[in-house]
């Protein structure tokens, strides 16, 4: 594997940082692209603004890689703007990689909105559960579909293989990430403990009781590497989840017990975190000072809005992994351990007390 050279696009995000670290551990040569890349052991930083074609072209000039992993997106006010901006980012990337003559594989990380639709029409039309990779696309605009089509066209034009990874609610270590439920819930539980408040489930009655699943960032990293290096996995789309299913009403008390707080079911009406935590910033500053934490700015840690979107669904979300299993990807991760191992690391690194 020492001859594989990877470009991880979005290397500071929850998918990208865990992938980059995994590939380094497997002796890949790894370049990490981000707007503001952070130093990391074995990861060579590449600074670029994906929305700026010239910025990406200059940053990647002369970089001869074998694999590119696209783990980046930028949220926009409407799905039409999501299509234009996020599609444009992938177009800029492949235009800048025209000189990478040894490029053999490109992977794209998307998610369950492939089956549920974009935020502005979320769940109004949706695929049947469990979600399977061969289900047809939903009607209307979806920036995941646009990114896929750009990937497919580039692969056909250049002759490299591709894979798509539809991860559902990624749980893992990353800071300042827009799609980071694990860290968000850790901060929320800490605030509840410090103020004596109950740990109220902030989502819908349906999510509280329905079956669901999530994806450990480390499972996603291993699937990305597997798909890049396994011929039978080439030119395929894959769901990516831990492999178990659960109900939040079962898991929520376990998370509460970890933090020593009282678990509470969702109230009627629901209590989204964006509403509950509107005035939490000054309180977090006090908690950080009291316990000597490394980050006192709560907005650098949490994504209230995205966790609300995940937990506020009024529909079932279960992803089928049969396709991956049949092709040989057998990784499995127990979901409670995904959360507890993340919380342990957050404590060890003084992110939470």
UniProtKB/TrEMBL annotation:
CDD domains assigned to the protein according to its UniProt record, in alphabetical order: 5beta-POR_like_SDR_a
SUPFAM superfamilies reported in the protein's UniProt record: NAD(P)-binding Rossmann-fold domains
PRISE-like Rossmann-fold domain span: 55-353
Domain of life: Bacteria
UniProt xrefs under Pfam families: PRISE (PF22917)
The protein's name in its UniProt record: Nucleoside-diphosphate-sugar epimerase
Organism: Silvibacterium bohemicum
InterPro entries noted in UniProt: NAD(P)-bd_dom_sf, PRISE-like_Rossmann-fold
């Amino acid at each position: 594997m020492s001859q594989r050279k990877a470009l991880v696009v979005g290397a500071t995000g929850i998918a990208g940082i865990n992938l980059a670290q995994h590939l380094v551990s497997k002796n890949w040569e790894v370049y990490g692209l981000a707007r503001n890349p952070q130093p990391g052991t074995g990861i060579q930083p590449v600074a670029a603004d994906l929305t700026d074609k010239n910025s990406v072209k200059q940053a990647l000039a002369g970089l001869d890689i074998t694999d590119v992993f696209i783990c980046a997106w930028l949220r926009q006010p409407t799905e039409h703007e999501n299509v234009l901006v996020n599609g444009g980012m992938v177009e800029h990337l492949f235009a800048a990689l025209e000189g990478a003559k040894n490029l053999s594989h490109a992977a794209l990380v998307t998610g369950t909105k492939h089956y549920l639709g974009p935020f502005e029409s979320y769940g109004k039309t949706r695929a049947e559960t469990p979600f399977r990779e061969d289900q047809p696309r939903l009607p209307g605009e979806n920036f995941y579909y646009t990114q896929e089509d750009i990937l497919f066209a580039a692969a056909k034009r250049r002759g490299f293989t591709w894979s798509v990874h539809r991860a559902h609610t990624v749980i893992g270590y990353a800071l300042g990430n827009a799609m980071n439920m694990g860290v968000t819930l850790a901060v929320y539980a800490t605030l509840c403990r410090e103020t004596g408040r109950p740990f109220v489930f902030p989502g819908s009655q349906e999510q509280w009781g329905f079956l669901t699943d999530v994806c450990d960032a480390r499972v996603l990293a291993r699937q990305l590497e597997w798909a890049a290096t396994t011929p039978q996995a080439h030119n395929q789309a894959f769901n990516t989840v831990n492999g178990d299913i659960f109900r939040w009403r079962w898991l929520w008390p376990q998370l509460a017990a970890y933090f020593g707080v009282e678990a509470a079911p969702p109230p009627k009406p629901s209590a989204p975190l964006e509403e509950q935590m509107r005035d939490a910033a000054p309180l977090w500053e006090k908690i950080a000072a009291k316990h000597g934490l490394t980050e006192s700015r709560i907005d650098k840690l949490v994504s209230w809005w995205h966790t609300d979107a995940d937990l506020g669904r009024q529909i079932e979300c279960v992803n089928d992994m049969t396709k991956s299993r049949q092709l040989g990807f057998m990784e499995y991760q127990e979901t409670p351990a995904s959360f507890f191992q993340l919380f342990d690391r957050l404590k060890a690194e003084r992110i939470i007390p």
